[in-house]
Amino acid sequence: MTTDTTTGMRVRPTALAGLGVFLLYLALIVLVQSTSGVDYDDLAASSQNIWRFGILSLGVGALAVTALTVWFGWWRAATVETVRSRKRWTLVAPAIYLAVALGNLVVTDWGALEIGFVLSAVVLGVTVGFAEELTTRGTLLVGLRGTMREIAVWATTCVLFGAMHGLNIVFGAEVGSTLQQVVVAGMQGSAFYVLRRVLGRLAWAMALHGLWDFSIFTQSAAPGGDNVLGLLVLPTALLSVVAGFVVARDAGRRSAGEPHEAAKP
């Protein structure tokens, strides 16, 4: 396919193209994790399991999505929001998630964890944040924007982000808790969407996503106490949905004629 000289994109953004990359990512995750010899519930049993089951599969998926995003000519569109939302109050939702994550780190019994395990968990967090955000709120989002209105883009990325966590059932995760995770993750994805839209960079969503997963993973592996801020997770998930809806709706209204605020380079 020839390059579009007006956009610099080799492939025109469409929902079909975005969904194709998303499904390829999931297929690679399933392929690598299913051949790792590690069950989902044993992920935190050792540093080796973290690498074999988590980091390797996410890394392979991230490489594939990165390569396709660059080849499509979508990299800048996937990682930079050229039109930022001015609804800055919506940043309250990701800010609360940040506070909860830091609280998790405070109550973690770090003395019970080996340094190799912690370093592996750091790499896992970075890889999760990069891979899942580029796939859903990066490449998938760009493709959906070529076909859908922003409200539908926001809703679809949140739903699919939540649904992708359902794959854990295939690898032995308990069905009930996984379905709960699907719902909560989908709602939390709205907070990551807000970060992209308001701050103008996907990197902010990647950073918070990675820190969140790292804090949950290490706190679960070595609980040293209760994080009372954890009580805020459910209300924050609800707030995230409201915030994401407001930001997405704002985009639709402004595209109809209101002035835009360009993201800083």
Kindly describe this structure.
- This protein has helices at residues 15-34, 47-72, 75-79, 92-107, 115-145, 150-164, 175-199, 202-221, 233-254, and strands at residues 83-84, 261-262.
- The chain has one domain (15-262).
- It is globular and about 50 Å long.
- With 265 residues, the protein is mainly alpha-helical.
- The longest helix is centred in the middle third of the chain and has 31 residues, at 115-145.
- It contains 9 helices and 2 strands; from the N terminus they run H-H-H-E-H-H-H-H-H-H-E.
- GO terms for molecular function: hydrolase activity.
- Residues 117-214 form the CAAX prenyl protease 2/Lysostaphin resistance protein A-like domain.
Describe how the helices and strands are arranged:
Blueprint: H1 15-34, H2 47-72, H3 75-79, E1 83-84, H4 92-107, H5 115-145, H6 150-164, H7 175-199, H8 202-221, H9 233-254, E2 261-262
Antiparallel strand pairs: 1-2
EC number: 3.4.-.-
Protein name: CPBP family intramembrane glutamic endopeptidase
Enzyme class: hydrolase
Distinctive features:
265 residues, mainly alpha, two-stranded antiparallel sheet, 2 strands, globular, disordered N terminus, disordered C terminus, transmembrane helix, transmembrane, membrane, CPBP family intramembrane glutamic endopeptidase, Rce1/LyrA-like_dom
